[in-house]
Amino acid sequence: MRNMANLGKSFEEEVKLANAAYLERGIALVQKISTPWVVIRRGKQIVSAFPEGKSTLDFRGTVEGGLSISFDCKESEDERGLPLKHIQPHQIEYMRQAIKVREESFILCYMKKFDKRYKIDGQTVLYLWDLWQANKGKKGYNYIPVEAMTEIRNRNGIVLDYLEMG
Q1: How confident is the model at residue 166 (pLDDT cuts 50, 70, 90)?
Q2: pLDDT band at 4 (very low <50, low <70, confident <90, very high)
Q3: Cys-Cys link to 8, which of 17, 22, 75, 138 (CB 3.0-4.6 A)?
Q4: Which one, of 58, 69, 65, lies nearest residue 102 by Cα?
């Protein structure tokens, strides 16, 4: 069984490299948001730890000019696309609220089978999530197809230039 906690670690490292390049060039300030943990101790010994609550998306920041962004990184081994079960309901709810206040919210997806990286617009994520929820149990509604994603390329010396989609 694979360790799900480290799934996507190298992809996330690429995102962090892109974020460092954006900061260095004055393009954006984007940071990984840590999930707060509650640690239970018995004296000095840690006996248990668990997430304090549901987090937002993994990354949040501001692009030059004041645009707020939020996104999460996902990986998929399914050649059809990103299984919607990889997105948590609290992440969907956060995306809904973010988009409502005009924050750009999206998913970055690494398609392992093709070794390609994609950006999935938040509106697309929400539309396909809602379609999946309305059609539970029906074949073909449980993933975001690759055709609904936009490939991300390395540009201008920035690894994984997810902000430049033109």
Answers
A1: very low
A2: very low
A3: 75
A4: 69
Handedness of CA 54, 64, 163, 99 (dihedral sign): positive
CA proximity to 129, closest of 78, 83, 98:
83
Which residues, in sequence order, are CB contacts of 47 under 8 Å at separation 6+? 40, 41
Instruction: Provide the token pair at 27.
Output: 């393009």
Q: What average pLDDT does the segment 93-118 reach? A: 96
Helices 89-100, 122-134: inter-axial angle, 10-degree rounding: 130
Residue 138 pLDDT grade (very low, low, confident, very high; cuts 50, 70, 90): confident
For tokens 């975001």, what's the residue? 144
Percent of the chain topping pLDDT 70: 87
| List of domains in the chain | 4-151 (3.40.1350.10)
Quickly count: other Cβ atoms within 10 Å of residue 156's Cβ.
9
Q: Distances in Å between the alpha carbon of 18 and those of 27, 35, 43, 126? A: 11, 21, 42, 25
Contact call for residues 161 and 154 (beta carbons, < 8 A) = yes
Asked whether the beta carbons of 52 and 45 are under 8 A apart, the reply is no
